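[job 0412] stage=fold_complex status=start
inputs:
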Amino acid sequence: MSDHHELCLLYHSGEIQAGRKTAFEAHLAGCPSCRELLLALGVAERVAGLAELPAPAIDAPAVLAAAESRGHGATSAVFVVLALAVLAVWPRGSDRVASWGELDRDLAALGAAVERLGSELARTETETEIDADFRALERQTRRGL
Amino acid sequence: MESRREPPRPEPDEETIRRLRERDPEAFRWLVDRYGGPLFTYLARRLQDRSAAEDLVAEVLLRVLRHIDRYQDRGRFSAWLFTIAHRLCLDHRDRRGAGNVVDTADVEPVSPEPGPERGAASAQARETIERALAALPAEQREVFLLREYGGLTFAEISDALDCPLSTALARMRYAVLKLRRDLEGFDV
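[job 0412] stage=fold_complex status=done
writing structure:
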C-alpha cells in the first residue's frame, strides 16, 4: 500500500499528524485513487451504521454480583488456617526448644504446611469464581437474553 | 475534502470509572447503554454467531468490572474494553477448536433486527449489507469492526491485534474497497 493510501486512512480517522494534513489535502486534489478511498471509507461508515445491532438484554444485577464474588471468604480462611498451622507447630506452655535444629525442623514443617494450604485454597478460590460465573450466566439465560 | 466522521461516542469520565470500581449500578447501567450495542455488534459479526455473542457481551462486561483497577493509565477506555473483547473472541475460537474454521461463504449472516437506523434501508439492501460484511475475510473484518464499532484508532487497533500499523491500515483499506465493490448499486 502506498504511503498516500496510509495517510488517507489516517486522515479519515483523524490520526494524521497536524504537520502533514495540509500537504495531504493538497495531494487529494490531484489523486483520484485517494479520493476513491475516501469515498469508500465514507460508504463503510454508513454501512456500519446501518448494520449496528441492538444490544441484548443484560442482567445487570447478575453481572454485578458475579463481579463481587471474588472469593473474599477464602482470604479470611487463609488467615485462620495459617494461625492454626502456627499453633500446631509452635512450642506450647512450658515446652522448651531443645535445640536450634528442632526449631529449624519446626519452621520447615510450618513452611510446608502453609504451602500446602495455599495451593488448596487457590484451587478453592478458582472453583468458587468459576461457579459464580456459571451461576450468573445461567440466570441470564433463564431470563431470556 | 474534509474527513466526515461522526462525533466520537463518549468515553467514561474519571467519576464514572470511580463509580464502576465501586460497582455502582447506575455507572454499570451507563456502561451497558454506551457499549452494549457496539460491543454486541462487534462480537456477533466477528464470531458470525449471535448466540455466542450474547454470552460474550456479559463476559466482557464482567471482565471489565473485575479488572477495572488495572485500567489506570492504559489509554482510552474503549480501546481497553474492545481489546478484552478481542481476546475473548480468540479464546472462543480456541475452545471451538482451531480446526473448525468457519468458511464465510457458508455462514448465514447475523440476522438483521430493527436497529437505530433501520428505516433508512430496504430489506433487500440490509440483506446485501449483511452478506457483504460476512464475506469480508476474517482479518479484514476484524480491523473493520474494531474501527467502526469500537471506534479504535488505527494505532489502538495495531496494539490490540499486536500487528504493525501498516498491516492494520492495509486490512482496513482492502475491507472498505471490497465493501464498496460488493455494495455497488445500492444507495448507502
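[job 0412] summary: Residues 100-142 of chain A form the longest helix (43 residues).
[job 0412] exit 0
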